[in-house]
Protein backbone atom coordinates (compact mmCIF):
# COMPACT_ATOMS: atom_id res chain seq x y z
CA UNK A 1 0.00 0.00 0.00
CA UNK A 2 1.09 3.46 -0.82
CA UNK A 3 0.48 4.93 2.54
CA UNK A 4 4.08 5.74 3.17
CA UNK A 5 3.98 8.10 0.22
CA UNK A 6 0.71 9.69 1.09
CA UNK A 7 0.61 13.15 2.47
CA UNK A 8 0.33 12.60 6.13
CA UNK A 9 1.40 16.04 7.21
CA UNK A 10 -2.02 16.40 8.70
CA UNK A 11 -1.59 13.15 10.60
CA UNK A 12 1.73 14.29 11.91
CA UNK A 13 0.13 17.49 13.05
CA UNK A 14 -2.76 15.58 14.45
CA UNK A 15 -0.91 13.06 16.53
CA UNK A 16 2.25 14.86 17.45
CA UNK A 17 2.58 16.91 20.52
CA UNK A 18 3.22 20.59 20.29
CA UNK A 19 6.86 20.55 21.17
CA UNK A 20 7.17 23.40 23.55
CA UNK A 21 9.14 23.16 26.75
CA UNK A 22 6.98 22.41 29.72
CA UNK A 23 7.54 23.47 33.27
CA UNK A 24 4.42 21.67 34.35
CA UNK A 25 5.93 18.57 35.88
CA UNK A 26 7.94 20.25 38.58
CA UNK A 27 5.18 22.59 39.62
CA UNK A 28 2.59 20.03 40.61
CA UNK A 29 1.84 21.54 43.96
CA UNK A 30 1.01 25.03 42.73
CA UNK A 31 -1.65 25.82 40.13
CA UNK A 32 0.24 25.32 36.91
CA UNK A 33 0.39 27.86 34.11
CA UNK A 34 -1.75 27.35 31.02
CA UNK A 35 0.75 29.03 28.71
CA UNK A 36 1.35 25.82 26.66
CA UNK A 37 -2.35 25.28 26.10
CA UNK A 38 -2.87 28.95 25.31
CA UNK A 39 -0.13 28.83 22.73
CA UNK A 40 -1.48 25.61 21.24
CA UNK A 41 -5.07 26.89 21.27
CA UNK A 42 -4.34 30.18 19.58
CA UNK A 43 -2.09 28.30 17.16
CA UNK A 44 -5.21 26.43 16.04
CA UNK A 45 -6.78 29.78 15.24
CA UNK A 46 -9.08 30.10 18.25
CA UNK A 47 -9.51 33.18 20.37
CA UNK A 48 -7.90 33.21 23.81
CA UNK A 49 -10.92 34.93 25.24
CA UNK A 50 -12.06 32.89 28.27
CA UNK A 51 -9.02 30.61 28.25
CA UNK A 52 -7.66 30.40 31.82
CA UNK A 53 -4.19 31.67 32.73
CA UNK A 54 -3.63 28.78 35.11
CA UNK A 55 -5.23 25.41 35.74
CA UNK A 56 -8.73 25.16 37.08
CA UNK A 57 -10.62 22.26 38.59
CA UNK A 58 -12.05 20.01 35.87
CA UNK A 59 -15.42 18.70 37.05
CA UNK A 60 -17.05 20.36 34.05
CA UNK A 61 -15.19 18.21 31.53
CA UNK A 62 -17.43 15.75 29.71
CA UNK A 63 -15.04 13.90 27.43
CA UNK A 64 -11.59 14.39 28.88
CA UNK A 65 -10.59 12.92 32.24
CA UNK A 66 -11.51 15.22 35.07
CA UNK A 67 -8.82 16.77 37.24
CA UNK A 68 -6.88 20.00 37.00
CA UNK A 69 -7.14 21.34 33.49
CA UNK A 70 -6.66 24.33 31.25
CA UNK A 71 -9.78 23.53 29.23
CA UNK A 72 -13.15 25.13 29.80
CA UNK A 73 -16.34 23.45 28.62
CA UNK A 74 -16.39 25.69 25.58
CA UNK A 75 -12.78 24.78 24.76
CA UNK A 76 -13.53 21.09 25.13
CA UNK A 77 -16.42 21.38 22.73
CA UNK A 78 -14.44 23.45 20.28
CA UNK A 79 -11.54 20.99 20.33
CA UNK A 80 -13.91 18.05 20.06
CA UNK A 81 -15.43 19.59 16.93
CA UNK A 82 -11.96 20.31 15.61
CA UNK A 83 -10.90 16.69 16.17
CA UNK A 84 -13.94 15.50 14.23
CA UNK A 85 -13.24 17.77 11.28
CA UNK A 86 -9.58 16.83 11.23
CA UNK A 87 -10.22 13.11 11.47
CA UNK A 88 -12.90 13.17 8.78
CA UNK A 89 -10.49 15.19 6.66
CA UNK A 90 -7.79 12.56 7.11
CA UNK A 91 -10.12 9.72 6.10
CA UNK A 92 -11.24 11.64 3.03
CA UNK A 93 -7.65 12.48 2.17
CA UNK A 94 -6.64 8.83 2.37
CA UNK A 95 -9.65 7.94 0.22
CA UNK A 96 -8.73 10.58 -2.33
CA UNK A 97 -5.32 9.05 -2.88
CA UNK A 98 -6.96 5.68 -3.63
CA UNK A 99 -9.52 7.36 -5.88
CA UNK A 100 -6.74 9.19 -7.71
CA UNK A 101 -4.94 5.91 -8.33
CA UNK A 102 -8.12 4.27 -9.63
CA UNK A 103 -8.88 7.27 -11.85
CA UNK A 104 -5.39 7.20 -13.30
CA UNK A 105 -5.76 3.50 -14.07
CA UNK A 106 -9.14 4.13 -15.64
CA UNK A 107 -7.60 6.74 -17.95
CA UNK A 108 -4.72 4.43 -18.87
CA UNK A 109 -6.88 1.42 -19.65
CA UNK A 110 -9.52 3.50 -21.40
CA UNK A 111 -7.00 5.30 -23.60
CA UNK A 112 -5.29 2.04 -24.47
CA UNK A 113 -8.51 0.23 -25.33
CA UNK A 114 -9.89 3.04 -27.47
CA UNK A 115 -6.56 3.37 -29.28
CA UNK A 116 -6.73 -0.31 -30.17
CA UNK A 117 -10.30 0.09 -31.35
CA UNK A 118 -9.43 3.16 -33.41
CA UNK A 119 -6.50 1.27 -34.91
CA UNK A 120 -8.77 -1.61 -35.83
CA UNK A 121 -11.27 0.73 -37.48
CA UNK A 122 -8.54 2.60 -39.38
CA UNK A 123 -7.15 -0.66 -40.67
CA UNK A 124 -10.59 -1.77 -41.85
CA UNK A 125 -11.22 1.59 -43.51
CA UNK A 126 -7.88 1.64 -45.27
CA UNK A 127 -8.16 -1.93 -46.48
CA UNK A 128 -11.66 -1.56 -47.81
CA UNK A 129 -11.27 1.99 -49.08
CA UNK A 130 -8.32 1.12 -51.26
CA UNK A 131 -10.23 -1.81 -52.65
CA UNK A 132 -13.55 -0.07 -53.22
CA UNK A 133 -12.60 3.43 -54.27
CA UNK A 134 -15.85 5.24 -55.12
CA UNK A 135 -17.98 2.36 -53.88
CA UNK A 136 -16.66 2.64 -50.35
CA UNK A 137 -18.08 6.05 -49.53
CA UNK A 138 -21.79 5.24 -49.71
CA UNK A 139 -21.30 2.05 -47.71
CA UNK A 140 -18.78 3.31 -45.16
CA UNK A 141 -21.61 4.01 -42.73
CA UNK A 142 -22.21 0.30 -42.20
CA UNK A 143 -18.69 -0.13 -40.82
CA UNK A 144 -18.68 3.17 -38.97
CA UNK A 145 -21.93 2.21 -37.26
CA UNK A 146 -20.42 -1.10 -36.22
CA UNK A 147 -17.51 0.62 -34.51
CA UNK A 148 -19.78 3.29 -33.07
CA UNK A 149 -21.95 0.57 -31.52
CA UNK A 150 -18.88 -1.18 -30.14
CA UNK A 151 -17.68 2.07 -28.57
CA UNK A 152 -21.10 2.82 -27.10
CA UNK A 153 -21.30 -0.65 -25.66
CA UNK A 154 -17.84 -0.36 -24.12
CA UNK A 155 -18.84 3.02 -22.65
CA UNK A 156 -21.67 1.35 -20.79
CA UNK A 157 -24.68 2.06 -23.03
CA UNK A 158 -27.56 -0.33 -22.63
CA UNK A 159 -27.06 -1.95 -25.95
CA UNK A 160 -27.26 -5.64 -26.68
CA UNK A 161 -23.87 -6.39 -28.17
CA UNK A 162 -24.91 -9.62 -29.90
CA UNK A 163 -27.89 -7.95 -31.50
CA UNK A 164 -25.71 -5.08 -32.67
CA UNK A 165 -23.33 -7.53 -34.34
CA UNK A 166 -26.23 -9.40 -35.97
CA UNK A 167 -27.53 -6.13 -37.22
CA UNK A 168 -24.19 -5.25 -38.74
CA UNK A 169 -24.15 -8.40 -40.89
CA UNK A 170 -27.79 -7.90 -41.84
CA UNK A 171 -27.09 -4.38 -43.04
CA UNK A 172 -23.97 -5.46 -44.85
CA UNK A 173 -25.98 -8.08 -46.69
CA UNK A 174 -28.66 -5.53 -47.49
CA UNK A 175 -26.03 -3.19 -48.92
CA UNK A 176 -24.53 -5.93 -51.03
CA UNK A 177 -27.94 -6.87 -52.38
CA UNK A 178 -28.92 -3.28 -53.08
CA UNK A 179 -25.65 -2.59 -54.81
CA UNK A 180 -26.18 -5.54 -57.06
CA UNK A 181 -29.44 -4.13 -58.37
CA UNK A 182 -29.22 -1.50 -61.12
CA UNK A 183 -30.02 2.03 -60.06
CA UNK A 184 -32.95 2.19 -62.49
CA UNK A 185 -34.66 -0.83 -61.00
CA UNK A 186 -33.90 -1.24 -57.29
CA UNK A 187 -35.07 -4.29 -55.36
CA UNK A 188 -38.41 -4.01 -53.68
CA UNK A 189 -38.54 -3.84 -49.90
CA UNK A 190 -40.44 -7.12 -49.90
CA UNK A 191 -37.62 -8.80 -51.68
CA UNK A 192 -34.97 -7.37 -49.32
CA UNK A 193 -37.03 -8.37 -46.30
CA UNK A 194 -37.36 -11.86 -47.59
CA UNK A 195 -33.67 -12.07 -48.38
CA UNK A 196 -32.86 -10.97 -44.84
CA UNK A 197 -35.10 -13.65 -43.43
CA UNK A 198 -33.12 -16.29 -45.27
CA UNK A 199 -29.88 -15.28 -43.59
CA UNK A 200 -30.26 -17.63 -40.68
CA UNK A 201 -30.74 -20.69 -42.85
CA UNK A 202 -28.57 -19.76 -45.80
CA UNK A 203 -25.71 -18.23 -43.80
CA UNK A 204 -24.24 -16.21 -46.65
CA UNK A 205 -21.27 -15.15 -44.51
CA UNK A 206 -20.54 -18.64 -43.23
CA UNK A 207 -18.95 -18.98 -39.81
CA UNK A 208 -17.60 -15.43 -39.67
CA UNK A 209 -20.56 -13.81 -37.86
CA UNK A 210 -20.52 -16.50 -35.19
CA UNK A 211 -16.77 -16.22 -34.69
CA UNK A 212 -16.89 -12.46 -34.51
CA UNK A 213 -19.65 -12.72 -31.94
CA UNK A 214 -17.97 -15.16 -29.58
CA UNK A 215 -14.47 -13.71 -29.72
CA UNK A 216 -15.16 -10.02 -29.91
CA UNK A 217 -18.16 -10.02 -27.59
CA UNK A 218 -16.13 -11.75 -24.89
CA UNK A 219 -13.41 -9.13 -24.99
CA UNK A 220 -15.85 -6.23 -25.03
CA UNK A 221 -17.85 -7.63 -22.14
CA UNK A 222 -14.64 -8.06 -20.15
CA UNK A 223 -13.21 -4.64 -21.04
CA UNK A 224 -16.47 -2.90 -20.24
CA UNK A 225 -16.83 -4.69 -16.92
CA UNK A 226 -13.20 -3.93 -16.08
CA UNK A 227 -13.44 -0.17 -16.54
CA UNK A 228 -16.78 -0.26 -14.73
CA UNK A 229 -14.99 -2.03 -11.90
CA UNK A 230 -12.43 0.77 -11.69
CA UNK A 231 -15.23 3.34 -11.62
CA UNK A 232 -17.33 1.49 -9.07
CA UNK A 233 -14.33 0.93 -6.79
CA UNK A 234 -13.55 4.66 -6.89
CA UNK A 235 -17.16 5.56 -6.16
CA UNK A 236 -17.27 3.17 -3.21
CA UNK A 237 -14.11 4.75 -1.78
CA UNK A 238 -15.53 8.22 -2.28
CA UNK A 239 -18.87 7.49 -0.64
CA UNK A 240 -17.42 5.51 2.26
CA UNK A 241 -14.77 8.15 2.92
CA UNK A 242 -17.53 10.71 3.44
CA UNK A 243 -19.37 8.77 6.10
CA UNK A 244 -19.57 11.06 9.16
CA UNK A 245 -18.14 10.06 12.52
CA UNK A 246 -20.53 8.70 15.10
CA UNK A 247 -20.75 10.69 18.36
CA UNK A 248 -19.06 7.78 20.18
CA UNK A 249 -16.19 7.88 17.73
CA UNK A 250 -15.96 11.63 18.10
CA UNK A 251 -15.50 11.23 21.87
CA UNK A 252 -12.76 8.68 21.33
CA UNK A 253 -10.99 10.82 18.75
CA UNK A 254 -11.17 13.83 21.03
CA UNK A 255 -9.68 11.71 23.82
CA UNK A 256 -6.90 10.62 21.52
CA UNK A 257 -6.09 13.95 19.95
CA UNK A 258 -6.81 16.82 22.31
CA UNK A 259 -7.47 15.53 25.80
CA UNK A 260 -3.71 15.33 26.42
CA UNK A 261 -3.66 19.11 25.98
CA UNK A 262 -6.50 19.60 28.41
CA UNK A 263 -4.58 17.43 30.88
CA UNK A 264 -1.42 19.49 30.44
CA UNK A 265 0.25 16.57 28.67
CA UNK A 266 0.20 18.04 25.19
CA UNK A 267 3.76 16.94 24.50
CA UNK A 268 2.85 13.24 24.82
CA UNK A 269 2.17 10.99 21.89
CA UNK A 270 -0.68 8.52 22.15
CA UNK A 271 0.26 4.92 23.01
CA UNK A 272 0.34 2.79 19.87
CA UNK A 273 -2.27 0.23 20.89
CA UNK A 274 -4.53 2.92 22.30
CA UNK A 275 -4.47 4.67 18.94
CA UNK A 276 -5.18 1.37 17.15
CA UNK A 277 -8.22 0.63 19.27
CA UNK A 278 -9.64 4.11 18.73
CA UNK A 279 -9.12 3.90 14.96
CA UNK A 280 -10.43 0.35 14.69
CA UNK A 281 -13.51 1.35 16.62
CA UNK A 282 -14.10 4.46 14.54
CA UNK A 283 -13.48 2.64 11.25
CA UNK A 284 -15.21 -0.63 12.18
CA UNK A 285 -17.90 -0.37 9.52
CA UNK A 286 -15.30 0.55 6.92
CA UNK A 287 -13.29 -2.56 7.81
CA UNK A 288 -16.34 -4.65 6.97
CA UNK A 289 -15.80 -3.69 3.34
CA UNK A 290 -12.62 -5.71 3.38
CA UNK A 291 -13.72 -9.14 2.17
CA UNK A 292 -15.90 -7.85 -0.69
CA UNK A 293 -13.26 -5.27 -1.58
CA UNK A 294 -10.55 -7.93 -1.79
CA UNK A 295 -12.92 -10.12 -3.74
CA UNK A 296 -13.46 -7.33 -6.27
CA UNK A 297 -9.75 -6.61 -6.57
CA UNK A 298 -8.97 -10.33 -7.05
CA UNK A 299 -11.60 -10.66 -9.75
CA UNK A 300 -10.33 -7.54 -11.50
CA UNK A 301 -6.82 -8.98 -11.43
CA UNK A 302 -8.15 -12.12 -13.13
CA UNK A 303 -9.91 -10.06 -15.78
CA UNK A 304 -6.76 -8.00 -16.34
CA UNK A 305 -4.77 -11.21 -16.76
CA UNK A 306 -7.30 -12.47 -19.30
CA UNK A 307 -6.56 -9.45 -21.52
CA UNK A 308 -3.04 -10.76 -22.00
CA UNK A 309 -3.79 -14.44 -22.47
CA UNK A 310 -3.87 -15.81 -25.98
CA UNK A 311 -5.49 -14.44 -28.09
CA UNK A 312 -4.52 -11.12 -26.61
CA UNK A 313 -6.74 -8.09 -26.54
CA UNK A 314 -5.02 -6.28 -29.40
CA UNK A 315 -5.26 -9.21 -31.78
CA UNK A 316 -8.92 -9.70 -30.89
CA UNK A 317 -9.75 -6.07 -31.63
CA UNK A 318 -7.88 -6.35 -34.89
CA UNK A 319 -9.75 -9.54 -35.70
CA UNK A 320 -12.86 -7.48 -36.47
CA UNK A 321 -11.71 -6.55 -40.00
CA UNK A 322 -10.35 -10.07 -40.37
CA UNK A 323 -13.73 -11.67 -39.63
CA UNK A 324 -15.51 -9.21 -41.89
CA UNK A 325 -13.19 -10.06 -44.77
CA UNK A 326 -13.64 -13.77 -44.01
CA UNK A 327 -17.40 -13.34 -44.15
CA UNK A 328 -17.18 -11.62 -47.50
CA UNK A 329 -14.90 -14.28 -48.91
CA UNK A 330 -17.32 -16.98 -47.81
CA UNK A 331 -20.06 -15.08 -49.54
CA UNK A 332 -18.01 -14.92 -52.68
CA UNK A 333 -17.22 -18.61 -52.61
CA UNK A 334 -20.82 -19.67 -52.03
CA UNK A 335 -22.37 -17.01 -54.15
CA UNK A 336 -24.04 -19.25 -56.67
CA UNK A 337 -25.59 -21.58 -54.15
CA UNK A 338 -26.64 -18.67 -51.98
CA UNK A 339 -28.33 -16.67 -54.70
CA UNK A 340 -30.11 -19.61 -56.24
CA UNK A 341 -31.47 -20.65 -52.84
CA UNK A 342 -32.41 -17.10 -52.03
CA UNK A 343 -34.19 -16.55 -55.28
CA UNK A 344 -35.98 -19.84 -54.81
CA UNK A 345 -37.24 -18.64 -51.45
CA UNK A 346 -37.96 -15.03 -52.27
CA UNK A 347 -38.78 -15.12 -55.91
CA UNK A 348 -37.26 -13.13 -58.67
CA UNK A 349 -37.56 -9.45 -57.94
CA UNK A 350 -40.04 -8.39 -60.58
CA UNK A 351 -38.64 -4.97 -61.14
CA UNK A 352 -35.26 -6.32 -62.09
CA UNK A 353 -36.17 -9.44 -63.96
CA UNK A 354 -35.30 -8.14 -67.35
CA UNK A 355 -32.89 -5.34 -66.61
CA UNK A 356 -30.36 -6.90 -64.26
CA UNK A 357 -27.03 -7.17 -65.93
CA UNK A 358 -23.58 -8.12 -64.92
CA UNK A 359 -21.05 -5.38 -64.96
CA UNK A 360 -17.62 -6.83 -65.32
CA UNK A 361 -16.86 -10.45 -64.69
CA UNK A 362 -13.75 -10.11 -62.61
CA UNK A 363 -13.40 -13.23 -60.53
CA UNK A 364 -10.44 -12.15 -58.48
CA UNK A 365 -10.09 -14.16 -55.31
CA UNK A 366 -10.99 -12.48 -52.07
CA UNK A 367 -8.04 -11.87 -49.78
CA UNK A 368 -8.75 -12.45 -46.16
CA UNK A 369 -6.98 -9.89 -44.00
CA UNK A 370 -4.37 -11.12 -41.60
CA UNK A 371 -3.27 -9.43 -38.39
CA UNK A 372 0.26 -9.90 -37.19
CA UNK A 373 0.76 -8.13 -33.88
CA UNK A 374 4.05 -6.28 -33.66
CA UNK A 375 6.35 -7.00 -30.75
CA UNK A 376 5.77 -3.38 -29.80
CA UNK A 377 2.06 -4.01 -29.40
CA UNK A 378 2.72 -7.05 -27.22
CA UNK A 379 5.02 -5.04 -24.97
CA UNK A 380 2.48 -2.25 -24.64
CA UNK A 381 -0.25 -4.64 -23.62
CA UNK A 382 2.07 -6.30 -21.12
CA UNK A 383 2.96 -2.93 -19.59
CA UNK A 384 -0.71 -2.00 -19.31
CA UNK A 385 -1.62 -5.20 -17.53
CA UNK A 386 1.38 -5.12 -15.18
CA UNK A 387 0.75 -1.50 -14.31
CA UNK A 388 -2.94 -1.78 -13.51
CA UNK A 389 -2.41 -5.07 -11.66
CA UNK A 390 0.29 -3.71 -9.39
CA UNK A 391 -1.78 -0.63 -8.58
CA UNK A 392 -4.78 -2.79 -7.74
CA UNK A 393 -2.69 -5.06 -5.53
CA UNK A 394 -1.45 -2.03 -3.62
CA UNK A 395 -4.96 -1.15 -2.53
CA UNK A 396 -6.06 -4.70 -1.84
CA UNK A 397 -5.92 -4.31 1.98
CA UNK A 398 -6.91 -0.67 2.08
CA UNK A 399 -9.83 -0.88 4.48
CA UNK A 400 -8.17 -2.91 7.19
CA UNK A 401 -4.87 -1.10 6.86
CA UNK A 402 -6.51 2.29 7.18
CA UNK A 403 -6.61 2.38 11.03
CA UNK A 404 -2.95 1.45 11.27
CA UNK A 405 -2.05 3.90 8.54
CA UNK A 406 -3.79 6.73 10.36
CA UNK A 407 -1.89 5.86 13.54
CA UNK A 408 1.40 5.42 11.74
CA UNK A 409 3.34 8.55 11.51
CA UNK A 410 6.77 9.53 12.55
CA UNK A 411 5.14 11.21 15.47
CA UNK A 412 3.62 8.18 17.10
CA UNK A 413 5.93 5.20 17.02
CA UNK A 414 5.61 4.12 20.59
CA UNK A 415 5.96 0.41 21.34
CA UNK A 416 3.19 -1.28 23.27
CA UNK A 417 5.30 -1.54 26.38
CA UNK A 418 6.11 2.14 26.43
CA UNK A 419 5.13 3.95 29.61
CA UNK A 420 5.90 7.34 28.19
CA UNK A 421 2.72 7.85 26.17
CA UNK A 422 -0.83 9.13 26.47
CA UNK A 423 -3.13 6.21 27.23
CA UNK A 424 -6.36 8.16 27.21
CA UNK A 425 -6.27 8.95 30.92
CA UNK A 426 -2.74 9.92 31.76
CA UNK A 427 0.89 9.34 30.95
CA UNK A 428 1.16 5.60 31.44
CA UNK A 429 1.34 2.23 29.70
CA UNK A 430 -1.76 1.21 27.74
CA UNK A 431 -2.86 -2.17 29.05
CA UNK A 432 -5.85 -3.38 26.97
CA UNK A 433 -5.30 -5.72 24.04
CA UNK A 434 -5.63 -4.56 20.46
CA UNK A 435 -9.05 -5.69 19.28
CA UNK A 436 -9.94 -7.18 15.92
CA UNK A 437 -11.19 -5.62 12.70
CA UNK A 438 -14.77 -5.04 11.72
CA UNK A 439 -17.97 -4.18 13.53
CA UNK A 440 -18.53 -7.57 15.17
CA UNK A 441 -15.11 -7.39 16.85
CA UNK A 442 -15.92 -4.10 18.54
CA UNK A 443 -18.12 -5.61 21.21
CA UNK A 444 -15.28 -5.26 23.71
CA UNK A 445 -13.60 -2.18 22.32
CA UNK A 446 -12.47 -0.31 25.45
CA UNK A 447 -12.23 3.03 23.66
CA UNK A 448 -15.22 3.31 21.35
CA UNK A 449 -18.67 2.41 22.53
CA UNK A 450 -20.38 1.12 19.37
CA UNK A 451 -23.69 -0.64 18.97
CA UNK A 452 -22.57 -3.60 16.90
CA UNK A 453 -26.17 -4.38 15.95
CA UNK A 454 -26.47 -1.13 13.98
CA UNK A 455 -24.24 -1.27 10.92
CA UNK A 456 -23.80 1.90 8.92
CA UNK A 457 -26.32 1.79 6.08
CA UNK A 458 -24.24 3.77 3.60
CA UNK A 459 -21.42 1.31 4.01
CA UNK A 460 -23.75 -1.70 3.76
CA UNK A 461 -25.00 -0.34 0.45
CA UNK A 462 -21.45 0.06 -0.79
CA UNK A 463 -20.66 -3.53 0.22
CA UNK A 464 -23.62 -4.54 -1.94
CA UNK A 465 -22.25 -2.47 -4.84
CA UNK A 466 -18.95 -4.30 -4.53
CA UNK A 467 -20.77 -7.65 -4.61
CA UNK A 468 -22.73 -6.67 -7.69
CA UNK A 469 -19.59 -5.52 -9.46
CA UNK A 470 -17.64 -8.69 -8.57
CA UNK A 471 -20.52 -10.75 -9.86
CA UNK A 472 -20.57 -8.80 -13.10
CA UNK A 473 -16.83 -9.30 -13.52
CA UNK A 474 -17.03 -13.03 -12.80
CA UNK A 475 -19.73 -13.34 -15.42
CA UNK A 476 -17.61 -11.32 -17.82
CA UNK A 477 -14.77 -13.79 -17.33
CA UNK A 478 -17.11 -16.44 -18.68
CA UNK A 479 -18.21 -14.23 -21.54
CA UNK A 480 -21.57 -13.36 -19.98
CA UNK A 481 -22.97 -9.90 -19.88
CA UNK A 482 -25.21 -9.85 -16.82
CA UNK A 483 -27.14 -6.90 -18.19
CA UNK A 484 -28.56 -9.12 -20.85
CA UNK A 485 -29.14 -12.32 -18.95
CA UNK A 486 -32.61 -13.58 -18.37
CA UNK A 487 -31.81 -15.56 -15.24
CA UNK A 488 -30.25 -12.92 -13.09
CA UNK A 489 -29.05 -14.21 -9.75
CA UNK A 490 -29.59 -12.70 -6.33
CA UNK A 491 -27.33 -9.70 -6.65
CA UNK A 492 -27.29 -8.78 -10.31
CA UNK A 493 -30.92 -7.79 -10.31
CA UNK A 494 -30.88 -4.92 -7.89
CA UNK A 495 -29.15 -1.64 -8.30
CA UNK A 496 -26.76 -2.65 -11.01
CA UNK A 497 -27.51 0.68 -12.58
CA UNK A 498 -26.52 -0.27 -16.07
CA UNK A 499 -29.90 -1.06 -17.45
CA UNK A 500 -32.22 1.53 -16.11
CA UNK A 501 -33.70 3.15 -19.17
CA UNK A 502 -35.82 0.24 -20.26
CA UNK A 503 -33.71 -0.52 -23.29
CA UNK A 504 -32.42 -3.84 -21.99
CA UNK A 505 -35.42 -5.90 -22.98
CA UNK A 506 -34.72 -9.44 -23.99
CA UNK A 507 -37.24 -9.44 -26.78
CA UNK A 508 -36.12 -9.56 -30.35
CA UNK A 509 -34.39 -6.72 -32.13
CA UNK A 510 -36.28 -3.48 -32.23
CA UNK A 511 -37.75 -2.60 -35.57
CA UNK A 512 -36.95 0.83 -36.82
CA UNK A 513 -37.28 1.09 -40.52
CA UNK A 514 -36.81 4.81 -40.87
CA UNK A 515 -33.64 6.30 -42.21
CA UNK A 516 -30.37 4.67 -43.01
CA UNK A 517 -30.39 2.19 -40.15
CA UNK A 518 -33.15 -0.06 -41.41
CA UNK A 519 -33.03 -3.31 -39.51
CA UNK A 520 -33.83 -5.93 -42.02
CA UNK A 521 -33.21 -8.77 -39.63
CA UNK A 522 -36.17 -7.88 -37.54
CA UNK A 523 -39.02 -9.44 -39.39
CA UNK A 524 -40.90 -12.50 -38.21
CA UNK A 525 -39.78 -15.69 -39.86
CA UNK A 526 -42.79 -16.21 -42.06
CA UNK A 527 -41.91 -16.89 -45.63
CA UNK A 528 -44.29 -15.09 -47.94
CA UNK A 529 -42.73 -16.17 -51.19
CA UNK A 530 -42.10 -19.81 -50.44
CA UNK A 531 -45.12 -20.88 -52.46
CA UNK A 532 -43.90 -19.50 -55.71
CA UNK A 533 -40.64 -21.04 -56.64
CA UNK A 534 -39.30 -19.23 -59.61
CA UNK A 535 -36.23 -19.77 -61.57
CA UNK A 536 -33.11 -18.30 -60.02
CA UNK A 537 -31.70 -15.32 -61.74
CA UNK A 538 -28.06 -16.07 -62.13
CA UNK A 539 -26.95 -12.53 -62.78
CA UNK A 540 -27.48 -11.43 -59.16
CA UNK A 541 -24.85 -13.90 -58.14
CA UNK A 542 -22.41 -12.48 -60.60
CA UNK A 543 -22.95 -8.89 -59.55
CA UNK A 544 -22.61 -9.77 -55.88
CA UNK A 545 -19.55 -11.74 -56.64
CA UNK A 546 -17.86 -8.91 -58.44
CA UNK A 547 -18.80 -6.54 -55.66
CA UNK A 548 -17.34 -8.66 -52.93
CA UNK A 549 -14.19 -9.18 -54.87
CA UNK A 550 -13.86 -5.44 -55.26
CA UNK A 551 -14.52 -5.03 -51.58
CA UNK A 552 -11.74 -7.33 -50.64
CA UNK A 553 -9.09 -6.55 -53.19
CA UNK A 554 -6.30 -4.68 -51.51
C1 LIG B 1 -19.74 21.75 17.64
O1 LIG B 1 -20.49 21.04 16.62
C2 LIG B 1 -21.86 20.95 16.90
C3 LIG B 1 -22.47 20.09 15.87
O2 LIG B 1 -22.03 20.43 14.59
C4 LIG B 1 -22.45 22.36 16.93
O3 LIG B 1 -23.83 22.29 17.18
C5 LIG B 1 -21.75 23.18 17.98
O4 LIG B 1 -22.22 24.50 17.94
C6 LIG B 1 -20.25 23.15 17.78
N1 LIG B 1 -19.64 23.82 18.91
C7 LIG B 1 -18.62 24.65 18.80
C8 LIG B 1 -18.16 25.29 20.07
O5 LIG B 1 -18.08 24.90 17.74
C1 LIG C 1 -36.07 5.38 -35.49
O1 LIG C 1 -35.00 6.08 -36.10
C2 LIG C 1 -35.23 7.46 -36.23
C3 LIG C 1 -34.03 8.08 -36.94
O2 LIG C 1 -33.54 7.22 -37.89
C4 LIG C 1 -35.47 8.08 -34.87
O3 LIG C 1 -35.76 9.47 -35.00
C5 LIG C 1 -36.60 7.38 -34.15
O4 LIG C 1 -36.71 7.88 -32.83
C6 LIG C 1 -36.35 5.89 -34.09
N1 LIG C 1 -37.48 5.20 -33.48
C7 LIG C 1 -37.31 4.25 -32.58
C8 LIG C 1 -38.57 3.61 -32.09
O5 LIG C 1 -36.22 3.86 -32.20
UniProtKB/TrEMBL annotation:
Keyword Cytoplasm: no
Family affiliation: Belongs to the glypican family.
Biological role stated in the UniProt entry: Cell surface proteoglycan.
Name of one Pfam family that matches: Glypican
Signal peptide from the UniProt entry: 1-24
Membrane topology: Lipid-anchor; GPI-anchor
Recorded name of the encoding gene: gpc1a
Gene Ontology CC: one annotated term: side of membrane
Region ranges (Disordered): 508-531
Source superkingdom: Eukaryota
Keywords: Cell membrane, Disulfide bond, Glycoprotein, GPI-anchor, Heparan sulfate, Lipoprotein, Membrane, Proteoglycan, Secreted, Signal
Organism of derivation: Denticeps clupeoides (denticle herring)
Protein name (Swiss-Prot/TrEMBL): Glypican-1
PROSITE patterns assigned: GLYPICAN (PS01207)
PANTHER family named in the record: GLYPICAN, GLYPICAN-1
Amino acid sequence: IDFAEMDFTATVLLLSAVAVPSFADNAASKARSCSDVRQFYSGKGFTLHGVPQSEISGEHLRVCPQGYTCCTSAMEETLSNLSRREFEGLVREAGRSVQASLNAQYRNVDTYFLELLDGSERWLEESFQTALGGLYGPNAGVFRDLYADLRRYYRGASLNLEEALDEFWARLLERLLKASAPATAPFTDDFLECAAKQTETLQPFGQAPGELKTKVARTFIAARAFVQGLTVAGEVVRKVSQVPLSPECNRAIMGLMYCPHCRGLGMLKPCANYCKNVMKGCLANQADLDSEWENLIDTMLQVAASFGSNPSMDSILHSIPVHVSEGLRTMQENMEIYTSQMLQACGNPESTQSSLTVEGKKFSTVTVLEYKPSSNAAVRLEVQITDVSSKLKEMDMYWIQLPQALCNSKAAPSPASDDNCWNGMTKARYLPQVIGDGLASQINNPEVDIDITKPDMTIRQQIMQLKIMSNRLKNALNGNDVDFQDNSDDVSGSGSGMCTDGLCSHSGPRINSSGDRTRISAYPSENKASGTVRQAHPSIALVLLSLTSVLLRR
